[in-house]
Structures are given as structure tokens and as C-alpha cells.
Amino acid sequence: MDVYESERDFLLITDLPGISTEDLDLQIEKDRLSINATRKSDGTGPPLVYQRAFALAPIFDTEKGVARLERGVLTIRLPKNPDSRPRSVPVVAG
Fold first, then answer.
1. 1, 14, 20, 22: which sits with the fewest CB atoms below 10 Å from its CB?
2. Burial of 56 by CB count in 10 Å (0-12 exposed, 13-18 middle, 19+ buried)?
3. What is the CATH number for 69?
4. Structural domain that includes position 52
5. How far apart are CA 52 and CA 66, in angstroms?
6. Is residue 92 part of a domain?
7. Residue 17 lies in a domain
8. Mean pLDDT of 48-70
């Protein structure tokens, strides 16, 4: 899993080969993001079970989170609340 943070948002990228949107469950509850995926066995091996959870800081606007599953790659973007973004503080000579 790759995790990136910018001034504006938080980005999680993970490979989930063979997983479809029907096999994937994403939940945000309070301050926790849970990723659960299950790929049924194709007869050559056991099923794949993927579980991961993250504690979320209150700086994220979880209501505006977006997830995309494309070609086996899951991308989750959680924007930061505007009030939590860094800002410059002017300094005056005194």
C-alpha cells in the first residue's frame, strides 16, 4: 500500500488484483477507515482475503472521500478540512 499526503488531501493506493467492486467493502466509522476484500478461489489456490484499517485524524473530511477501483488498483482520496490546512502567519516588526 502506498500512502501519500499533500497539503490538500490524503491518498491511499493499493493493488487488489482480481477484486471487483462487488468483492470490496470500504467503511468509514468515526475515526477509522476499513478496507475489506475477498476474491473467491479459482480452484488453483485458496481465496484471497484482504483486510486493512487506518485510524483517521479529525483533519479529514470523510464525507467527501472518493474511492475508485480500476484494473485491480484501489485509490482512495480523503480531502483535508480547509481549516486544518497549513497557512502562513504574517510577522510584523515590532
1. 22
2. middle
3. 2.60.40.790
4. 2-83
5. 17
6. no
7. yes
8. 90
